[in-house]
Amino acid sequence: MLATAANRYRQVVVSTSTPGELLLALYGGLFRYLKQARVLMEAKQRGRAAEQISKARAIIAELDIALDHAASPDLCQNLTALYGFCLDRLSLACREGSVQALDDVIRVLTPLHQAWQLAVPKAQREQGRADKGR
């Protein structure tokens, strides 16, 4: 029963969140999985680390699929290359138990995450001001 309530809550959150809020939630989950994988890898628990890496890979793949190449082809091309690099490094981390490969992914995605953390609230504030002006 508790699991059902939690699933309903998640569905409501997703259905009522803005695209920016969903993006931030995806990045938050991504970094949580990457950090958990790193801790597990250091503890020599590669099987459990691989589960977290798999979740991180799914989020990165979703971020890549969601790109609108028609709206901004150059930006999307650069992000696709960055996400491809991250997926390659995560494969290496899983295959060889490389903490460094996980660190590489965290290192290259952190500035992007930080930029979204600044941009999303700013865009929401500006949208709110634009809505009030109507």
Question: How would you characterize this protein structure?
Answer:
The chain is an all-alpha fold and 134 residues long. It has one domain (19-132): Flagellar protein FliS (Four Helix Bundle (Hemerythrin (Met), subunit A)), CATH 1.20.120. Helices cover 87% and strands 0% of the residues. It has helices at residues 2-16, 19-42, 46-65, 73-96, 99-132. The termini are far apart. The model has no long low-confidence stretch (mean pLDDT 89).
Chart the SSEs and their pairings.
Elements: H1 2-16, H2 19-42, H3 46-65, H4 73-96, H5 99-132
Helix pairs in contact: 2-3, 2-5, 3-4, 4-5
Short summary:
The protein is mainly alpha-helical and 134 residues long. The chain has 5 helices and no strands. The chain has helices spanning 2-16, 19-42, 46-65, 73-96, 99-132.
CATH class: Mainly Alpha
Strand runs, count:
0
Helical amount: over 70%
Characterize the overall form.
Answer: globular
Distance between the termini: 45 Å
Secondary-structure-based class equals mainly alpha
User: H/E order of the elements?
Assistant: HHHHH
Low-confidence stretches: none
Strand count, sense and closure of the main sheet?
Answer: none
In the CATH hierarchy, the third-tier topology is known as Four Helix Bundle (Hemerythrin (Met), subunit A)
CATH superfamily: Flagellar protein FliS
CATH architecture field: Up-down Bundle
| Gyration radius over CA | 17 Å
> What fraction of residues sit in β-strands?
under 5%
Count of folded domains:
1
